[in-house]
Design goal:
alpha+beta, Jelly Rolls, seven-stranded antiparallel sheet, three-stranded antiparallel sheet, 8 helices, 12 strands
Length: about 280
């Protein structure tokens, strides 16, 4: 477990009108910032309609971008939605959203990864605890911690329908995970991750120091979180579905190089090496 060497906020001079200095400081301190009802009802309605259409089409689609649950054929995630879908491409360029992202990362940005995660009522499966940067560094070749994720709720997120859980302050430590990642691990890890996850002792230590929070809110809420923040989510045992779209932004000064594992890079639909034109 190593102390972080990179900044969390790369530009502390307020250059936009969406968030203020206090919110920026909260992001730096905790590693995340929750903004309830960030998107308008009209924007949310458009995204929800497109979400349903993507779900229907994905059920019979065998493209590699469609990830299924580990114990069946139910759709778990759909990747590269900013590349393949006009609605989510516009979302990735949303002016108020990108203004906040550029403020935090201190530069122009591009989408490193995008996906929709589906968690239907009763059957939606968990995503185990992990830090994204550990995987992006080892398997994709992301040099530094100058990236962040945006989780946008497309349905109401409750404490009981498998919401994202975060460990505040955990972004200040890098947890090097045990074991060697097998080649082409992404083919299994996107369904159920077994490598690149922290050990129990490290998780226990981080949770003892920072606690565990579940930032939840109505559809249209936005959760911004640092690339090194420890996070995960449990299965959805409730009747209420929970679907979120994730947009990962990387600084243009932090472009991917060869993976630090020495293995071939993961496909472009998981880790973009060039911005979508």
């Amino acid at each position: 477990m190593l102390e972080r060497g990179d900044p969390v906020v790369y530009d502390k001079t307020i250059r936009q009108s969406v968030i203020g200095a206090e919110q920026l400081a909260e992001y730096e301190r905790n590693g995340y910032l929750f903004l309830d009802r960030f998107f308008t009802e009209q924007e949310v309605g458009t995204l929800q309609d497109e979400l349903k259409r993507i779900w229907r089409e994905a059920e019979g689609d065998d493209r590699p971008e469609i990830i299924r649950e580990p114990d069946g054929d139910a759709v778990r995630s759909v990747f590269a939605v900013h590349r393949d879908n006009a609605v989510f491409r516009r979302l990735a360029g949303h002016e108020r959203l990108t203004a906040v992202v550029k403020q935090i990362l201190g530069s122009d940005v591009y989408v490193h990864q995008s996906r929709i995660n589906f968690k239907p009522g009763f059957t939606g499966k968990e995503f185990y605890w992990h830090s994204d940067f550990e995987t992006w560094h080892v398997e994709d070749g992301m040099p530094r911690m100058r990236a962040l994720s945006c989780s946008i709720a497309l349905e109401d997120n409750y404490a009981f329908n498998g919401p994202l859980m975060v460990i505040p302050g955990s972004h200040r430590r890098f947890v090097s995970c045990v074991g060697e990642t097998p080649q082409h691990h992404y083919k299994e890890s996107l369904r159920k991750q077994q490598y690149g996850v922290p050990d129990d002792d490290s998780l226990t230590k981080l949770a003892a120091e920072g606690g565990i929070e579940t930032p939840v809110g109505k559809a249209g809420s936005l959760l911004l979180f640092d690339c090194n923040l420890m996070h995960g989510s449990s299965s959805n045992l409730s009747p209420y579905p929970r679907s979120n779209v994730f947009l990962v932004y990387n600084s243009v000064h932090n472009r991917l190089v060869e993976p630090f594992s020495g293995q071939p890079p993961r496909p472009d639909y998981i880790a973009s090496r060039e911005p979508v034109r």
